[in-house]
């Protein structure tokens, strides 16, 4: 069994995002090539956009800090601390409305 403090990791990754030139930082907490389930903690500085990308499988975004917007061509959803957004099976982008940290959970379909 393994235990991880999401609060401590969120703080750490946000520090990296705020000080780095890209304005983003991420750490995979569970998963990889040998697993179908992958959980990644992502931190973004306010204003940073994760460009449009495909959904690699079923996915959720749980906002741990700040505020973000997840958008497709047809709709958008605001996420605040404590919100869980089910990622649509469509090309989408994520914008940090404020400095934010979220837990991305993906079950790969292939």
UniProtKB/TrEMBL annotation:
InterPro entries in the record, alphabetically?
RmlC-like_jellyroll, RmlC_Cupin_sf
What is the protein name given in its UniProt record? Cupin domain protein
List the taxonomic lineage: Bacteria, Bacillati, Actinomycetota, Actinomycetes, Micrococcales
